[in-house]
Specification:
Radius of gyration: 22 Å
Distance between the termini: 38 Å
Number of strands: 15
Strand order of the largest sheet: 2-8-7-6-5-3-4
Largest sheet: 7 strands, mixed
Number of helices: 11
Oligomer: single chain
């Protein structure tokens, strides 16, 4: 296999796009699928009657393959926040217990618990950002803290979105199980790049969107639910959440019992003519390459970035603690206020997150892009 896949994208040679952790470009094949799908919506009478079911199952199976799950354990949802809300609705968090979240984690795994805590009487316990960025040690210490209220839920991300600090989810999952806590994982910044195996990890729920590392469109995401978490009431009440409520039946409300699998938690409106085929096309590419191969492709790029920034007045997430595909760059002595603009003038595109420059390459990047970014940063930082 080649080590770069730029020809699969419409990215000019002089552009170094390093913001996959924000939103990725679409592959050419995905864009073509979108254009064809628009045609389907223009003339829907040309579609077979089972078109929607086929496209939904294609996406569901592709998402399940990415995390080593059964398709029956995966729900079609529009966003990570929707997935967390779905799980939270079905949980009875004991009053006086703790729900563990990370300081400055993204909104999705945090805000749902904050808004529920007062009415339900539980405590949102925020794990402080560790000075050495070793989130794993900090989370484990919080779970096991002597004399603290019991932990009932651990709701965290696999990778801290601001700087790429990675968490050892296997160790955290083991600790959560030992303390009887529900583990809910926001895998936004890992699925598709870091191998994820829910059969081995055994979280209660895991959720991820498509518009970042999965090279897909906005508005599509997936929720994995362990078998033990598939009996809750869905966030929405829909036809397809029930065993037999179908418009083509003689009797519409045939069987109101909920579906037995995670399919009961599918979003209400899932007939997405355009974005679902685009999603499947991108997921097929990620599955074809394989997350392990993608990780091995991207790690040398972030390593090259780190090496190229040596000697500059910056701080980096330590190598053993950073994910292979995101490099967070801090500025202990301050940074130019127009740093992103300076980089953009040299066709280098990245993002600022919580005071750090976040550089996040994907399979369309290569060493030439990294060297362009290094040169631009050296110029900007003197």
């Amino acid at each position: 296999m080649p080590t770069a896949y730029r020809d699969l994208f419409d990215i000019p040679r002089d552009v170094a796009y390093l913001n996959a952790a924000g939103y990725s470009p679409l592959p050419n094949a995905t864009a073509a699928a979108g254009r064809a799908a628009v045609g389907n919506k223009v003339q829907p009478w040309r579609l077979p009657g089972n078109f929607i079911d086929q496209q939904n199952e294609r996406a569901r199976k592709a998402a399940a393959q990415l995390i080593n799950a059964s398709a029956d354990d995966v729900s079609l949802i529009p966003s990570v926040g929707y997935g967390i809300a779905t799980v939270a609705k079905s949980l009875e968090v004991p009053p006086g217990s703790r729900v563990l979240v990370l300081e400055d984690d993204h909104t999705s795994p945090v805000l749902e618990w904050q808004v529920r805590s007062e009415a339900q009487g539980f405590i949102v316990d925020t794990v402080a950002r560790p000075p050495d960025l070793d989130w794993t040690v900090a989370v484990l210490a919080s779970i096991q803290r002597a004399g603290a209220e019991p932990v009932s839920v651990v709701s965290i991300s696999t990778v801290h979105w601001s700087d790429g600090a990675v968490l050892d989810m296997a160790a955290i999952a083991t600790a959560a199980r030992r303390h009887g806590a529900v583990l809910i994982i926001d895998a936004t910044q890992s699925v598709g790049v870091i191998p994820v195996d829910v059969m081995a990890l055994d979280p209660d729920a895991l959720v991820f969107p498509t518009y970042k590392w999965l090279l897909g469109p906005y508005g599509r995401a997936f929720l994995y639910l362990a078998k033990r978490r598939q009996s809750g009431i869905p966030l929405e009440q829909t036809q397809h959440s029930r065993r037999n409520v179908r418009a083509d039946n003689d009797v519409y409300f045939g069987d109101l019992a909920y579906a037995d699998t995670a399919r009961r938690c599918d979003m209400g409106q899932r007939d997405h003519f355009v974005s679902m085929p685009m999603t499947s096309t991108s997921l097929d590419l990620i599955n074809e390459l394989g997350p392990a191969h993608i990780m091995q492709t991207l790690k040398p790029l972030t390593d090259r970035l780190a090496e190229g920034l040596a000697g500059l007045p910056v701080s980096l997430t330590p190598a053993p603690l950073r994910t292979p595909h995101i490099l967070g760059v801090g500025f202990p002595n301050g940074r130019p206020a127009d740093l992103l603009q300076q980089l953009a003038r040299q066709n280098v595109f990245a993002a600022m997150r919580l005071g750090k420059l976040r550089l996040s390459p994907h399979i369309y990047n290569d060493a030439a892009d990294i060297d362009r970014a290094i040169a631009a940063l050296r110029s900007a930082l003197g």
